[in-house]
Structure formats: structure tokens, C-alpha cells
Amino acid sequence: MANNSWTRRRFMRIGTGAIAAGAAAKVTLLEPRPLWGFAQIVAPSDTVRFASIGTGVRGCELLEASLRVPGFECVAVCDLYDSRHLAAQEAVKKNAPATRNYKEILDRKDIDAVIIAVTDHQHRKVFVDACAAGKDIYCEKPMSHTVDDGFAMVEAARKANRMIQIGSQRVSSILYAKAKEIYDSGKLGDVFSIEAYWDRNSASGAWVYPIPPDANEQTIDWNAFLDGAPKRPFDPVRFFRWRCFTDYGEGLAGDLFVHLISGIHFITGTNTIAQRAQSTGGLFRWKDGREFPDLIETFYDYPNFRIAVRCNLNSEGGEFIAFYGTKGTMIIKDTTLTYLPQDTRPQPESYSIYGWPLQLREAYLQTWHAEHPLPSPLNFKVDEQAESYATPKGYSDIADHQANFCNAVRTRKKTVENEDFGNNAAIGCHLANYAYFNKAIATWDSGAKKIKG
Ligand SMILES: NC(=O)c1ccc[n+]([C@@H]2O[C@H](COP(=O)([O-])OP(=O)(O)OC[C@H]3O[C@@H](n4cnc5c(N)ncnc54)[C@H](O)[C@@H]3O)[C@@H](O)[C@H]2O)c1
Fold this sequence. Notes:
six-stranded parallel β-sheet
């Protein structure tokens, strides 16, 4: 009997060790997609002609990535800051016409689509006008600056029947597709707890971006930037570090939570708004006049699971999402995905029977082992089931996300991240900030489409 027990325990320990080793040892490199099925050479009639509205950091990144998408051609660029016209032309490697006035772009009948990469507080205005002008839209995340903005955008897209892609590009990542496959396979069992963080520890990570030397009221249309926000004198800090201020951005929630929430929604097949959110955090280090915390942690209630999300600008940690299931754990860490099965075979009670007299303990164990014969080692595969995947060097989920949009514009088939998906994820950010600033539990009222305290 004692011998049998020892054998089983030893067997389990070997199994567990092998799982950890297996997970660390073998990483499968994922195959990049053939950019949503399109050949490298696209007929002129299939070319999607687009303009980029907002050509700052992200706008230029998107323009560069667009060069990898077959048949996706930039024909105009627009920004309120003149130097960004040149930056955009350099990014797209052509002398595309440039303007400060996005309405000139919307008036052009030869433009099929627009990329909207303006500051968050201007998303609604540009998006609604672009819908009315009949353009399909790739709009950067977070879709909305406020809850009302989001629903106005959903309504505009629906009314004008536009193809919309919101810009949380992880949703198109081959790593997230693999994570979804594992999640959907049931290998994790039931997942009730999901944890995510995105931590950074640098001035750039905290949005302390340098102010370019030619920034002034002549080179920047400051009044147009302020549209939809309170009037105030020219302030380059607000223009270039807008994420720090509530008039234009949503702080860490709008910048980073939205990626994590979108990824979790995509993997779990969730397309709803969290029911409740509770936040904590504070402004501990980057006390430069900003209005948002540099640490925020939010706990969300969803019908079938709970999510804990954190962003901390005071320690490097990268990007992380973990799904804790009854049969296994799945972790995304930056560009790597790991699945670890858990040993869910029945085990004899050991801890609580220490309070039993020896005779009862032995009788219990004898009965237990008689009822649970050891599995044959050859049939026992738990230790071989750990899996690890990574994206190949240079892989870009941005090009994948744009290609999915471009293909949807051509085929009129749904994008991976339409306006409803984008709106739901953005409301998660608004719930987090509401709970933080009001020191209250934020509750989503789906009837009124409002957050309540
Ligand atoms: N998906 C991602 O990973 C990702 C990464 C970074 C930024 N973003 C998003 O992209 C957007 C832009 O961010 P950024 O970092 O490029 O900011 P940025 O400040 O570098 O650029 C924003 C640009 O928008 C321009 N702009 C604002 N209103 C305009 C208007 N009405 N017409 C024309 N131009 C206008 C400004 O002049 C500015 O140059 C934001 O919504 C941000 O959240 C997404």
C-alpha cells in the first residue's frame, strides 16, 4: 500500500517536471498568413485607394505597413501639423497630395477608404463625416473618446452601410489566432479567471515625447486640434503628449487596456460590454502635469469570467495575458504563446487526513487506491501536451489587420474588428476610468447605454 502510494506520487512529480521542461524546450514558429489570401499583384480594378487622416506616429506606422498590403494604395495624406505631411510622404515613399483639411479628402470621389489615426477626441467627428461621405474606414483604437461618441459612430456606420475596421491589430495576429484555436478546442476547460498587464518603464512608454523644434502656431492648426475640446492658448505639450490629458485621450486605459481587452474578447469570442468595473491606482512618478494615473488596475465582471487588467508605467513588464482554466493555462507573453495542461487526474487526499488516526488513514488510502488504479504510463500523455508558439522575426500584425480591412472593402465581407466590437472594447476603457476617477464601482447600464456609479 505505502509502496503503491510512493509510486503514484513519484509518477506525478515526473509528469509535472516534464510539463515545465516541455513548455520551455520546444517553440513552434507560426507561419505568417498570405495577407488574407490576396496575390502580390492586384488588378487595378481591385486596388483600394485610401487617404490617411492623421499622420503622426501611428499614421506613419500604418502608412509604412500599408506598403506590404497588396493593392492598398495611399493617394492622399492629411494632418494639422505641416511637418507630418512630409513624414507621411516619406513613410509611403511617394509624393501623395497633402492637406490640413480632411474634408478635401472626403470630397474626392476617387478615394474608397480612409485611415483615421487622429487623436482620440477627434475620432468621432472625422469618422461620422467619413461615413456620410461614403468612405470605408480603418479607425485607430480606442474607437471612442466617450461612451456617447462610440454609439454615434456605430449609428453613422450602420446608416451609411460602411465597412469598418477598428485598429486593435492583435485581433489579426497569427499568435492570437493560435490562442483562439486552443481556447476554442476546450483544452483549457472552463476559464473563469483572466489576467492581463502591459507594463513599461521609460519616458517614451510614459508618453513624454520630445517636442519638435519647428512646432508653433504657424506650423500647427491649433484651433482645429481643439475642436470638440475646451479652448486654450497654444500648448505644444498638449498637442504632442495628448494621451496625458482627459480632453483628448483616455490615459492608460485608452492606450493599452484596449489592446488587452480586444485580444481577450477576440480569443474568448466575447462581443459584449463588461457588466461592472472596479479600479485602483495612482499617479506616483510621472508628475509632469498629466491628468491620468501612471498605474491603474481594473477588475471587470463578465457573465462567464472575471478579468484583472493592469498597466504600470513604473516597471518594465511587457505585454501579458493569461487564461486560467480548469484543465490548463494559456499565457501570451509578448510574441510567445504557451499552453500548459494541468494534471486533473483524481488524487488521494493527503493534507486533511493528517488529522486522522493512522488506522483510518491507511484504510482510506487503501480503498482510494483500489478504486483508482494507476494509469498505464504508456497511455499517460499529460507531460507531452505542453505547447509553445512564437511569431517569426519581423512579423507584423499591423499589415495583417490592414489586409483584412482591404479585403473587406473589396468583398464587402465582415472585418475582424467592426464598429460593434470596437465600441464594446472602448467602453471597457471608459468603465475603468470612470471607476478610477469616481472611486466607485462602474456599472454598465445596457438599456440606457450609459455608465452608472
Ligand atoms: N493600434 C495601435 O497600436 C496604436 C498605436 C499608437 C497609436 N494608436 C492610435 O492612433 C491614433 C493617433 O495616435 P498617434 O500616436 O499617432 O498620435 P500623434 O499625436 O502622433 O498623431 C495624431 C495626429 O492627428 C492629427 N490630427 C488631430 N486631429 C486632426 C484632424 N481633425 N485632421 C487631421 N489631422 C488631425 C494631429 O495633427 C497629429 O499629428 C490615436 O487614436 C492612438 O490611440 C494606435
